[in-house]
Amino acid sequence: QVQLVESGGGSVQAGVSLRLSCVASGRTFSVETMGWFRQAPGKEREFVASIWLDSGSTDYQDFVKGRFTISRDNAKNTVYLQMNSLKPEDTAVYYCAARRRYYASYDAWGQGTQVTVTS
Known about the structure:
Elements: E1 2-7, E2 10-13, E3 18-26, E4 31-39, E5 46-52, E6 58-60, E7 68-73, E8 78-83, E9 92-100, E10 108-109, E11 113-118
Parallel strand pairs: 2-11
Antiparallel strand pairs: 1-3, 3-8, 4-5, 4-9, 5-6, 7-8, 9-10, 9-11
């Protein structure tokens, strides 16, 4: 099993930055990809960004390209989401997720961290 704990959320004004962190523990050697998702009130959870832990290759949803950056520190079993130029529409609960090698989908999730952006 892999356990994930997010931190770094908060309430900020539009235009500022936040950095989310996600620390993984447990069978972390089995994890191939880590991702960030978000869920706004009344909406379905949506993909934000992902990173392959070995290569560092990244993928982003269009609405965060150029503003958000996902990165990892494998020595610390930590993945980050640097969020710049935040907008009110970025308000959501942000979840960290892990996909294990040979698995097609993410099967480990954190508890989420709230990000609120006010105008």
